[in-house]
């Protein structure tokens, strides 16, 4: 009884520890965050910024001290370029006592990027890779004396340039296009590749301590990482999960013998054999002070719930607790026994994820099977949430973005290879929200060096980050790089003349270095060599496919800038489309300069921030195909109109493309659609659906319908027939029965001119079902109706079991255009009176969230109603409309507006909301 009580109290204390450390998942025997006050200065002492805490970066510190203006405003990306070209020093005072601890380590979890580290007069070592954790033995210097801790940073711009000198084979591309206003040779250094500028982002070659700095005190072994592989038995009669646990122990920075006990618990879950709970360890760490200890735990399947992606089930997580206790703890009385004990808690999920690539008649399939269920991947591509690394880990903003993805029915995000290995917080949230992660390693759009020093730091980078990240159930697959295979094969960077040499470097880096390093630390997941690639077909061949974009294999990246993107016929899709998209401009009110700039000045600024090599020509071309184009660029209303039309065009293009991919799940084997891109790093033209700061573009509002688990797709196909396809991602044992209604409307009338109904359409679970193909153009011709005057609205309802049963709300609504909007004939071009009324408003003091119920009334059908708050409401943050850019073919529609309103100071009124429609441009 006493033993049971002790165990019960132990579990209670453990659970309290877990709750208190839910954002710090590791409890170490003695660990001190050095969130001290640091001084930052340039090496000449011209700029001195005192009292800075870490994590930190030079740009952030200079902004906060008002040495420079905001990096993200006006032309400050160019005006502040000197910051990244200057050497800087971080310094603080540090006093520590080693006492009788065996190990005292100074550990930097992230240094950006080149720094010499000094404690007092002693050079501890060099940092050269922002993705690597660096530890230094400081025991001898921890004598109670105060020493200056100093990091002398060298300009990454200068270091990159220095490494480019004297190379027989240039590492290409050497510089970004001139329009990026960027820096050169970023591919020669291990730094966020986008920090020297990208087609969606500014150059900000940052420096600083971008992750925590800690003093680690212990006397036995430290648990640095816990890796996990969870497999499900497929043997008949075996109803167990196997949890393969790898415990990575450290003993300082050198080999040492250790003896002790490892204890394993999955909180609230009994193991099938109590003997698995402990493991005696007597061994020596390697020359770097590391030792991997492996243990296998087994759990009955009926003791746990499965973890599912968003939309398929619950995201059940369990806490795996690992404890190291040195044998000396119970042998003698110690002054600090806790320094010989180490603990770590991670969260795990019981699920299987298989990237299935079975052979078909015309190639290989490529799709994710989760818990044995084929999954259509719906989602986006993730770039860092800030161009400044120390800001990219902002927990609240990362949470906002991931919740926005979840709420748009996404079940996958691709962490893109030109950014960062994300924060632990990012992966924890992905676990909680059911968002699977396709994870690139941080290599993108470039050739790379393969000298031994470069490969050495890459091995360490991959080893550390895969170990840190891989236990998360959300991580689905690794890819060693972004677009480097296709770049090499298609001669993007003029490599053809030296193809053999560049090919050899490609194989050396990814096939012989990166992939083995990933597999050594995570043998349970597929490692793709590139994205796009032919998947297994590339890996079994010479690693560089003749056509890495072959739609019959692997994944593809598809961008179409000059064919009419509103036309569904343009899209075929591949097995898995991991990138596609189109640009738009951020809302006019999102530009901080908008109110002070005239049209000419604003045009110059937009052009400066437009980094696409094609500039804004594709945006204007696509608008010109389908919409009335604003007239005079010098007119005050030109930019607000153009921005509206660009967002509408982007939403229509991504909607059309995504819906074709979903509809072609059976016909073409398409099983994934990840558009480019979810988020942004500044206010600029880009492919994002969410502006920097959190404002949704029209596209993101539309995604709630585009990615809805139950959806009705309608488009005009290559046979010029209206194609209707029922889409159902939900699981269930039974088929659904739908009634589908098709209504033909004139643009100027609320009343449909014709209706068509398909009864009792059988829709199986987790697939698509064709509803009908209808020659709508022939039907209109027979009625004497012109296609340019009409559009089709479609709705799906649950089938009525009896004729008199009241019709339930629609399961899904959609529309299909029968001609270009600019071709609507004059008699159907009406300009409705649009009125917005505030019906109710409430603000929570607790959450600082304002919710406003609006009624939008129209006197005639309104096309793509666009609601926007006026600039006077700039203190409101992350304002989102429940619907926007919508077709209103009913007199009244209700829309919800939510905003973060600190202190609940604002009272939104009807005059605070502006309205635009396509109608007003058509009647001009």
UniProtKB/TrEMBL annotation:
Cellular compartment(s) = Lysosome
Q: Which reaction does it catalyse?
A: Hydrolysis of terminal, non-reducing beta-D-mannose residues in beta-D-mannosides
Residue stretches making up the Beta-mannosidase-like galactose-binding domain? 38-211
Q: Name one GO biological process term.
A: glycoprotein catabolic process
A Gene Ontology molecular function term of the record: beta-mannosidase activity
Key word NADP present: no
Record keywords: Glycoprotein, Glycosidase, Hydrolase, Lysosome, Signal
**Name recorded for this polypeptide:** beta-mannosidase
Task: Please tell me the species this chain comes from.
Answer: Anopheles dirus
